[in-house]
Design brief:
By secondary structure, the protein is an alpha/beta fold. It has a single domain (4-292), classed as Spore Coat Polysaccharide Biosynthesis Protein SpsA, Chain A. Helices cover 32% and strands 19% of the residues. It has helices at 14-17, 28-36, 51-62, 77-82, 113-123, 143-151, 170-173, 196-202, 220-229, 241-251, 274-284; strands at 4-9, 66-72, 89-91, 94-101, 131-136, 157-162, 178-181, 187-191, 210-211, 215-219, 257-261. The strands form two sheets. Strands 1, 2, 3, 4, 5, 6, 9, 10 and 11 form a nine-stranded mixed β-sheet that branches. A two-stranded antiparallel ribbon has the order 7-8. α3 crosses α6 (143-151). The longest helix is centred in the first third of the chain and has 12 residues, at 51-62. The chain is globular and about 45 Å long.
């Protein structure tokens, strides 16, 4: 089943480092971490366990054993925790490697998530002819959806989340990319910053609107060229992974199947999320999540 996973952690966490009002209950030490560390390394778990531990635990429980973490060129925290070697660091039953995403000359930040995945695939040429899953490092995807992607019979797939089940405030949900599909459930478009008209158009007969949370199952050989060819977004000035997947879906019909899901996805985008995610971890996870099995 190709138990390969890419976790994108090479961004500069600009939204997390932006000063914003947060509830008084949020630990001051975590706010300091938010200004210094990669988002996924903020210690929102019991005893200061970093967010990324929980994603790795869910990935392991879903059946993934070979993980590539894309890191920034100045990263030290991720490699300090999960192993300093570029390849084959053992961490609670998961084998971790790294791909370094550099900042191109003339820029102050990396070139985006499509470029990040391209960095990972270029260091893992042994994945040619195989499939892999790719996801953000600041969303806690469940064991269930990660397993569904791993076991999907489709060459390409993404999780199609029910917008009304995500549990976020309406203003935030309205910013999520919505999914356009054909009658058989195959992706035809990913619409970023959707208008009210876009939302009405993609709504199904039951009123459900599907959104992307940037977790995909892809074929190395199929997606590689689209990662290279996707244009730079004119607003964000980055090459975005959803745009590359949408480009592939448009040029190769029925190449990406939308797997429906309806659940909350803990999201550590900004400082206001820290307290919410910390409480979720306290309620739903043991102090050491890796003791769930084995």
């Amino acid at each position: 089943m190709n138990p390969h996973l890419v976790i994108l952690a090479g961004g500069v966490s600009s939204r997390m480092r932006k000063i914003a009002a947060v509830p008084d209950a949020v630990d001051a030490g975590l706010l300091i971490e938010a200004g210094q560390k990669s988002k996924c390394m903020i210690g929102v778990g019991p005893g200061g366990r970093p967010f990324l531990d929980y994603l790795l635990c869910n990935a392991r429980e879903a059946g993934y054993t070979d993980v590539v973490i894309v890191v920034g060129e100045t990263d030290g925290g991720i490699r300090a925790r999960y192993g300093s070697a570029l390849h084959d660091n053992e961490f609670h039953g998961v084998r971790i490697s790294y791909a370094v995403q550099h900042v191109p000359g003339g820029r102050t930040k990396p070139l985006g998530t499509a470029d990040a995945l391209l960095c990972a695939l270029r260091v893992r040429t042994d994945w040619q002819g195989k499939q892999f899953t790719v996801c953000n490092s600041d969303n806690l995807y469940s064991q269930g959806v990660l397993r569904q992607l791993l076991e999907s019979p489709h060459t390409g797939a993404l999780i199609d989340y029910d917008r009304d089940a995500l549990g976020f405030e309406q203003s935030r949900i309205e910013q999520f990319a919505v999914l356009e599909k054909d009658r058989d459930g195959y992706l035809t478009a990913i619409i970023e910053k959707p208008s009210p008209g876009d939302v009405l158009r993609v709504r199904d007969a039951s009123g459900r609107v599907g959104v992307s949370m940037n977790v995909f199952r892809l074929s190395y050989d199929a997606v590689l060229g689209f990662l290279e060819d996707v244009p730079v977004d004119p607003v964000r000035q980055e090459k975005e992974l959803p745009a590359a997947v949408a480009l592939m879906a448009g040029r190769i019909p029925r190449s990406v199947f939308a797997i429906p899901a309806s659940e909350y996805v803990p999201d550590l985008t900004g400082r206001g999320d820290i307290g919410i995610v910390r409480e979720y971890m306290r309620v739903h996870y043991p102090a050491n999540p890796f003791k769930q099995s084995g």
